[in-house]
Amino acid sequence: MMFCEKAVELVRELQRLSDGQLPAFNEDGLRQVLQEMESLYDQNQADVNEAKAGRTDFIPSIKLRHSCLLRNQRCVTAYLYDRLLRIRALRWEYGSVLPANVRFHMCAEEVEWFSQYKKSLASFMRSIGGGEGLDITQDMKPPKSLYIQVRCIKDHGEFEIDDGTVILLKKNSQHFLPRWKCEHLIRQGVLEHVLS
Amino acid sequence: MFITDIKKDFYEVVANQRVALLVAGDIDALCACKILQALFHCDHIQYTLVPVTGWQELGTAFLEHKEQFRYFVLINCGANVDLLEMLQPDDDSIFFICDTHRPVDVVNVYNDTQIKLLIKQDDDLAVPSYDEIFRDEDEENEDDSGNESDEGSEPSGKRRRFDEGAVERRIERQRARREWEARRKEILFDYEQYEYHGTSAAMMVFELAWVLTKDTKDMLWWAIVGLTDQWVHDKITHMKYVTDVATMQRHVSRHSHRNEDEENSLSIDCMRISFEYDLRLTLYQHWSLYESICNSCYTCCHFKLWTLNGQKKLQEYLADMGLPLKQVKQKFNSMDMSIKENLREVIEESSNKYGIKDIRIQTFGAQFGFKNRFLASDMVHAAAALLESTEKDESDTDNFIKALDSLSRSNLNRLLSGIDLAKKKLIAIQQTVASCICTNLILSQGPFLYCYLMEGTPDVKLFSKPMALSLLCKYLLKAFVHSTRNKRCKLLPLVMAAPKDVEKGTIIVVGIPPESETSDKKNFFGRAFEKAAESTGSRTLHDHFDTSVIELKTEDRIKFLDALITLLS
């Protein structure tokens, strides 16, 4: 029987979903690998004691089992780490609240890790931008300008922006507003981005 | 109050605030608006831009936005009326006014808290001093009552004598007050009698950009176009125009020193602005030379091209310069290079021979790319034609946006369509002028000349707009002065009326000062129209920012005119 097969299967499972999807946490597979590692370790312990007593012909098998252990360890850490990287990417894709089906695929520790990462990112974002904070998850590339010039194509009435101030969107009036506030109105066709 | 440090008292005040920009409907205002927008973009100052075409729209825009904005910037509107009285703002609204209309209302000058004027204090203003107009009334009454109570405690024997003294003093004080009030009325009347224009708003805002060292060539070009608009629409005197051109010339040479360097010169696509001593032929580089000569006010009036003699003289003139008709009638860009090379000098020489002095005028031209060359006056005419275009289904604000867009370099299509519209407008103006002169439609009413465009006149729709009608007025007066032999009529101002809104039954009336070489462009028709309307009870609408343009009900035309004649005789 081949050692480390289960571990390699864990890795292969992630490799199959190379587009960044998060499969369900393979708790069974992980447990099996850990069990294998435990049994290998116990066998090695026994053999090491023998080898210390003088039976040097056990040394190759000790070496073999040791390298299997290392291999298993490497595969398992790769598995866990790759999953964490995928979970981190989810924060940038979905925002701070994950959809239920994705959360279902995460184990408890991974959920814990995710909330810690969220906190870290939030405190970082709060610290930049001159004390006001800057939401860097808005644009993947640095935007050309934080504010854009928009023209109102049809009457939309009053429109509230972040700090509570209200803007009256009347036809043919032009405004200079923060980019993220205008995006969905531009998509709706109420505002038109003006390039001068 | 007048702002002295435009950077500290205006720009740094609005730096972290949101601003409402209320912009009037003339090209100078549009240029100033463009420069200010560019500065705001640079510094991320949030703003909202609202075009306003008259006092009513200004009032509406203010009401709509007063909850959301504390700072209002008014461009080319608001200086010549008591703004606080008209808008009734809250105490924390602050108005920054950059306006060329003069005289500036005295309340705006002396208000220290809410009105800040972005105008230079020495800009031809002659504001009466504070003491001549305002007076603390309370002091007066206190003095009187104080004296009376003192006298009450005196013994009765002396009281009668003291009473007489007190009564005499009171009578003296009242007389002094009446005198002061009469003098005040006179001073205010003199101050507010004539309407005229000061330094271009675009130039003021460009100066702000320069002080902030954020000025670019685009902003410089807009400032130049703003100044040229004042000259094209005859708002400033020739002296002032020349002085302001000299100021702009300094900025132009500062921006263009890189062009001289052979090794590191700019790419051909960059904007280059140059000082030109160019011909006074409107749009000649985008038209044929012949058409331009026929439709430019200056040449048309001097040759009297509405007469047969005039046409013949024009042919002579062209022949004298050695320009073949075939060349001259085709598009300017397709003319032979050999003709185009010395064209300006040749035309100047010939014009002097024919008695047409000053065919050349100091102005500026811009070039970006190989094909795109524009003179400042070309842009003014194009933008003005777009701003007042009378296409159906286009509201005033649509036109405003189109005209604003045409001033940007990236919207060449807009600009070229504007030039086409401008050509049509100029042809219409010349044809109307020709027909008015030939059919003697201009009548002398005594103190002024009068012309009424009937409803069926071709292209009369174009003249329902104030700028177009004023331009027509100016050209008509010039043509009239050249064609009439009556010496007295040459010195008269002109009042013109044209149908404005057929459904509502109103006409638009415009008055311009007399035509002369040394005219100071001061227009008294604003006050005259007001008084005439009051005395006859005519239904008028004084909505336009220039007080010399009003809207009047067609039925009241005759009595309004009669009142005006009586008033001015």
What's this model, at a glance?
By secondary structure, chain A is mainly α.
Q: Descriptors for this entry?
A:
heterodimer; A: 196 residues; mainly alpha; Methane Monooxygenase Hydroxylase, Chain G, domain 1; Ribosomal Protein L9, domain 1; 2 domains; three-stranded antiparallel β-sheet; two-stranded antiparallel ribbon; 6 helices; rod-shaped; B: 569 residues; alpha/beta; six-stranded mixed β-sheet; five-stranded parallel β-sheet; 24 helices; globular; CDC45 cell division cycle 45 homolog (S. cerevisiae) (chain B); chromatin binding (chain B); DNA replication origin binding (chain B); nucleus (chain B); single-stranded DNA binding (chain B)
Description:
The complex is a heterodimer of chains A (196) and B (569). With 196 residues, chain A is mostly helical. Chain A has 2 domains: 123 residues, Methane Monooxygenase Hydroxylase, Chain G, domain 1, CATH 1.20.58; 47 residues, Ribosomal Protein L9, domain 1, CATH 3.40.5. Chain A is built from 6 helices and 5 strands; from the N terminus they run H-H-H-H-H-E-E-E-E-H-E. Chain A has a 3-stranded antiparallel beta sheet, covered by helices on one side. Chain A has a two-stranded antiparallel sheet with strand order 2-3. Chain A is rod-shaped, with a radius of gyration of 28 Å. The termini of chain A are far apart. With 569 residues, chain B is of the alpha/beta class. In chain B, helix 22 links the parallel strand 12 and strand 13. Chain B is globular. The two termini of chain B are 38 Å apart. The relative contact order of chain B is 0.09. The chains are: A mainly alpha (196), B alpha/beta (569). Chains A and B meet through strand 1, strand 3 and strand 4 of A and helix 2, strand 2 and helix 20 of B. Chain A: Component of the GINS complex.
